[in-house]
Each structure stands twice: as structure tokens, then as C-alpha cells.
Design goal:
Distance between the termini: 73 Å
Number of strands: 29
Length: 647
């Protein structure tokens, strides 16, 4: 802090010196061309430091410090490099100008106060530049005494052959593994060694390479990170954050175990497990997770709202997920916020204690997965007492993502995992349901050959294709799959034969999960309804038609999207194409009306994009046939199923 105030004083004195030098310049211009040139050099030099120094090292905002620190961390930051050039020009011109001016001043008898002014101005210039370099990190030369470099974390990534999580003799380092501090990314050398700047409250992590897997923790989550919180989280939070970690260790070594070599694998994905009581966790176990045990997948992903504000229930979810005996990767949601946090920057520190960093990445096969926290906490609404938040990405997240993808092969698939969708057709302009400013992220994804977005939050299925600026582009847009909620309609509704709520989602589809199947950088998705993963992928309802004697069928294809097609044979051998017509499923309205005694009033049927409609022929109305549906999914695969009416 003392260095800051000294520097600010120097900046202001430099302004005074620059004004005095400008007046002297006018005087010297009439005396000698060389003196005018030298005076101009002094003026330019001082103004260069004043301009760059005042901007880069004025009030010490986080943005300024991060900008100046970018050079030391190896990041490409033109702004910080320009500041460095300013300082070098200032020092060079100042030295040249002083030498020439003083030689002319001594010869011609320039008043002593002018000599002092110029000499003092140059000293202020040099001191200003060095103090700015010391504070911001733009100039870090080891030969400059008193100029401190950044705190560096060091260690290695190694093949842990005996699975004891310690590096033993004969265990080789693993090269070209990405290591990050959440801002910049480095890769390990041929010996598996790495080093990277670190600040208090940073989390260091590696991106699991495809040929290996990170060792599992007690709850099955991969152990791939180290949290550096020397003072711990702030006190006074509703739920405890991270305990003090103390001084930075001399070395941080990350072990890796041998992984699956195949580029073909499955991952089960879901969102919004969102259980508020021990009983609801029992529902999650018996309704959703039991089915996972029968499906061989390489890993699992949960896209946010793992909990439901009751953060002390985190260990129960950890225990349930650990029982699946496979790695799982969590993403932060709005219901993991610590609502007593004074600001967004500390609102997820309870989540970090339980589940790890909110931003990270990992690899499997030829797929690069990225977890990004897109929930910005804005405090408690004084009128409602509820949390205020919006969907957004920050500048540091975007810069980290660019650095992260810079070391990923261009022909790999990038899967971005978030909680709040970048866009939803429920309401495309609600900041709590969308990331309204997603242009930078979409530009990054559009630059990739293969890309996919996974989201949650809506408690319904939705598939969209997003162009830059979030416009809908079914042909060339980035595919976004909004995953079903594991808790469906928040574990509400009448109990089924197992004693578990029906939990119908607001779009009329069952609660459940999605199975993603990867072949190299290609993928397919399949909706898995909870407790009945092999049940029909659609239901249909007969309603009144547009004409007085007509009847109409409304078909809800649960996993349908803009590229899906539905045709139906009503028993007469004629295959009729149905028209996609987004709206509200009449069946879910009926369910909510009949079960309102066990469904909260705030849970309402919402419009969905996966409805198709068509007129029933008279023969189908009379004979009550069970129609055969021909379904073409988002990937062009065709299947036929017979489904009776749900009326």
C-alpha cells in the first residue's frame, strides 16, 4: 500500500514536471535545434510514463493487475505489452534528452532551476516506471533489485504405476499435460515438469489426458486439482467454505493412472439432482441412479443444481455418486450458491470445498470437456428474500477458455458443460434462464470443427442450434442439449407403485438423464426416462381439431429437436408427416390439474419445442387403432414404435 501511495505521488509530480518541461521547450526552441530536440525527448518521455503509468497503475483495480500480470504468465496481452513498450521508450528518450540538454545547458548557462527540473523529472520518470513494474508485473527483470516476481507453483505430472498416489523411483513424468491456474495454461515438459504463477485463492488443476485417468477420490470424483487458500474462506458464511491451506508447498505432483484407450465410449449426463431432504435423496437413488448401475459408461456429468440450497447435504450426494463406481464431473448451478456470501467471487467456496473448482477441463478419447460456471450471483433480493442471479461469462473465463483450447487438437470435439443454457425458447430474453451475452463463447465454439453444449436448469428437455449472437441456426449452429432434470418437477406429484413421486417435467416429459455415445469426435444422444429407460420415446394425446367434426393428435417426442421428424401410420398403411408446432402439452396440464394437491402452485406447464401435430383420419377415430410412429431423430437415425393414446 505504501508503494502505491508513493507511486501516485510520483505520477502527480511527473505531471507538474511535464508542464514545466513544456514551458522550457518553448524557450529552448528559440535557442538551438538540438536543445529543442532534447527538450522534446524529455517531454515525450515524461508524458509516456504519465499516460501509461496513470492508466495501468492508478487505483489498483483487479482488471489492471490482471492485465499487467499477463506478460509474466505468458498470456498474449497486447495491452500489457504496449505498457511495457511505453516504459522502455520513456527511459530511452529520457536518458538521451537529459544528456543532450544538460550539455547544452552547461554551455549556455541555463538557469539552475531548469537543470534541477529536468534532472528531477528524469528521476521521477525512472522511479515511476520501476514502481509501476514492481506493482503490476509489466517489467520483471531479475537484475533489478527489489522488483519481486510472481509466486510460482511447481511440480510434476507422473504415471502412478502402483496407484499409491506418490511419485516413486521409476515412475516417469507425463509430457504435454495441460496445467492451469484458472487464468493461463502451461503444458508439462518431456519430464512431466511444470511451473505456473499462483495467487491466493487460486485453484491449480490439470486437464486429464485421454490416455490416462485421474485417481478417484473417496466419492468417485477425479483428484485433479489443488486449492491454494492460505487464509481460507471468509468467515460468517451460512455454510463453511475452504479451510486455510497454509503456505504453498515446494512441489505439487499430480498422479495419473492408466486409462481406457478406446475413442468409443458412453457418458451419462443429467442435471438438477436438486434434492432438499434425505427422503428426496432416497428418491434420487432409487429412481435415477439405480438405472445407471446397469448401463456401462466411462463417466457421468451433472450440469448444475446438484443440491437445493441446503449445502450441508452435500456429503449425501457425494456418498450416492461414489456408490456408482465411476468418475463423475460436477458443474456449479444457482442452488449451490452460499447465499450469505457478500459477493459473487466467494459465493461458490462451499461448493468448491465439496466438489472442486467451478471452471476446469478434462479429456476422454478425442473429446475435450469443459466445465464453466455461468451463474453470476447478485445478492439477496430485499423484497422476496430470494437469491438474485443471471447467466453470464466473465472476461477471465473467456480468456482462460481460449488458452485452454489452444492446446486441444483442432479436430477434437469440444463439449461445453454449463448450468444455465445460452438460450432457451421458454423465454429467450430472461437473464435468469439464458446467457444473454454469449457472443464471445459462441465465437470460440464456432471456430471449432466439432462442438456441443450441455446445459440444465430448465427442468425440461430442449435441443437448439445456436449461431453467433444466439440466433437460431438449425443448419450450422452450435448444438445445445438442455438436459432433463433428475428430480423432474422437483420430486412432486402423486406417488407411483414404488412410493416415488411421478415428478413430471414442465414440458410433459418424464424426469431422467441423457446417454451420450462418442465415436471419435462424433456423438449421439439418447434420452433415458427415469426407472423406464426403454419406454417409448413419445406420448400422444387426442384433442379437438380445427373443424367441428375433426380430431387432432398432439405428439410429444421427448428428445425431439429442429432436425427431428415424426410420421405416423394410423392403421391404413399410409405414412403421414406430422408438423412440428411448439406449444404446451395438454397432457402435462391435465396431470398438474389432477395432482395439484401434491404439486406446488408455482410449478406450471411451460411451452416446449418438441411437439408435433396432425389431423386424425376418421378411420383412426372410429376404430381406436394403436398407431405406428416413424421417428427420425436429430442424427438421422430412424425407428418405428407403436404407442397407444395417453388420453
Amino acid at each position: 500500500m505504501l508503494a502505491l501511495w508513493i507511486h501516485l505521488l510520483i505520477v502527480h509530480l511527473s505531471v507538474i514536471a511535464a508542464v514545466g518541461a513544456a514551458g522550457t521547450c518553448l524557450w529552448a526552441w528559440r535557442r538551438s535545434t538540438s536543445e529543442a530536440w532534447s527538450t522534446l525527448c524529455i517531454v515525450v518521455g515524461i508524458l509516456a510514463v504519465v499516460t501509461a503509468g496513470a492508466h495501468e497503475s492508478g487505483p489498483p483495480t483487479r482488471a489492471h493487475l490482471e492485465s499487467l500480470g499477463a506478460i509474466a504468465e505468458g498470456a498474449v496481452n497486447a495491452h500489457a505489452k504496449a505498457a511495457l513498450v511505453f516504459y522502455l521508450i520513456a527511459l530511452g528518450l529520457g536518458a538521451l534528452g537529459l544528456q543532450t540538454l544538460l550539455s547544452g545547458a552547461l554551455r549556455d548557462g541555463v538557469a539552475s532551476w531548469r537543470k534541477i527540473l529536468f534532472a528531477g523529472g528524469l528521476l521521477l520518470l525512472v522511479a515511476s516506471g520501476l514502481l509501476t513494474a514492481h506493482r503490476g508485473g509489466s517489467i520483471r527483470r531479475p537484475e533489478l533489485r527489489g522488483v519481486a516476481g510472481p509466486l510460482m507453483a511447481r511440480g510434476s505430472v507422473f504415471a502412478d504405476l502402483n496407484h499409491n498416489r506418490h511419485r516413486d523411483a521409476g515412475e516417469a513424468g507425463v509430457a504435454r499435460v495441460a496445467v492451469s491456474n484458472g487464468r493461463s495454461v502451461v503444458t508439462t515438459d518431456e519430464e512431466g515438469r511444470w511451473q505456473i504463477p499462483i495467487r491466493p485463492r487460486d485453484t491449480l488443476f490439470i486437464s486429464q489426458p485421454s490416455a490416462y485417468r485421474c485417481p478417484p477420490g473417496p466419492d468417485g470424483r477425479p483428484a485433479f486439482y489443488y486449492q491454494y487458500f492460505p487464509q481460507g474462506s471468509p468467515s460468517g458464511l451460512d455454510y463453511p467454505g475452504i479451510d486455510p491451506t497454509g503456505p504453498l508447498p515446494d512441489r505439487i505432483d499430480f498422479p495419473l493412472w492408466e486409462g481406457a484407450a478406446s475413442d468409443s465410449f458412453d457418458v451419462v449426463c443429467l442435471a438438477d439432482t436438486q434434492s432438499k431432504t434425505e427422503l428426496e435423496f432416497d428418491y434420487l437413488r432409487d429412481d435415477v441412479l439405480e438405472e445407471w448401475k446397469t448401463i456401462p459408461t466411462r463417466s457421468a456429468i451433472i450440469c448444475g443444481d446438484l443440491l437445493y440450497d441446503e449445502l450441508d447435504l452435500g456429503p449425501r450426494l457425494q456418498q450416492l455418486m461414489g456408490s456408482l463406481d465411476r468418475p463423475w464431473w460436477p458443474i456449479a448451478g444457482n442452488h449451490e450458491l452460499n447465499l450469505a456470501s457478500p459477493e459473487d467471487s466467494t459465493s461458490l467456496e462451499t461448493y468448491q470445498r465439496l466438489f472442486g473448482p467451478p471452471n476446469y477441463s478434462w479429456n476422454s478419447g478425442r473429446v475435450h470437456f469443459v466445465a464453466l460456471d455461468d451463474v453470476v450471483y447478485e445478492g439477496i433480493d430485499p423484497d422476496t428474500g430470494r437469491a438474485r442471479y443471471r447467466g453470464a461469462f466473465t472476461g477471465p473465463q473467456i480468456r482462460w477458455l481460449e488458452a485452454d483450447l489452444a492446446v486441444v487438437p483442432g479436430d477434437w470435439l469440444v463439449v461445453l458443460c454449463v448450468h444455465i443454457p445460452l438460450r432457451t425458447e421458454v423465454d429467450a430474453h430472461d437473464p435468469t434462464l439464458n446467457v444473454l451475452d454469449a457472443t464471445a463463447i459462441l465465437e470460440i465454439l464456432h471456430a471449432r470443427k466439432h462442438r456441443l453444449i450441455l446445459a440444465g436448469h430448465l427442468h425440461q428437455n430442449e435441443q437448439l442450434y445456436l449461431g453467433v449472437d444466439r440466433r437460431l441456426d438449425p443448419q450450422a449452429g452450435v448444438h445445445q442439449i438442455t438436459l432433463p432434470a433428475a428430480c423432474g418437477g422437483w420430486w412432486s406429484g402423486h406417488l407411483d407403485s414404488r412410493g416415488i413421486p411421478q415428478a413430471t417435467q414442465r414440458d410433459g416429459s418424464p424426469n431422467g438423464s441423457v446417454l451420450l455415445s462418442f465415436e471419435g469426435p462424433r456423438y449421439r444422444s439418447r434420452f433415458l426416462p427415469a426407472s423406464e429407460p426403454n419406454s417409448p420415446p413419445l406420448h400422444w394425446t387426442e384433442v379437438e381439431g380445427p373443424g367441428p367434426e375433426e380430431r387432432r393428435a398432439i405428439v410429444n417426442y421427448h428428445a425431439g429437436g429442429p432436425r427431428s421428424r415424426i410420421a405416423v401410420d394410423w392403421g391404413d398403411g399410409v405414412l403421414r408427416e406430422l408438423q412440428r408446432q411448439p406449444g404446451v402439452d395438454p397432457r402435462v396440464r391435465s396431470i398438474y390439474a389432477q395432482q395439484r394437491d401434491s404439486i406446488p402452485e408455482w410449478i406450471e406447464a411451460l411451452p416446449t419445442t418438441h411437439l408435433w401435430t396432425g389431423i386424425l383420419p376418421s378411420s383412426a377415430r372410429k376404430e381406436q387403432v394403436v398407431p405406428e410412429f416413424e421417428i427420425t431423430d436429430e442424427y438421422g437415425a430412424v425407428r418405428r414404435v407403436r404407442v397407444p393414446s395417453s388420453r
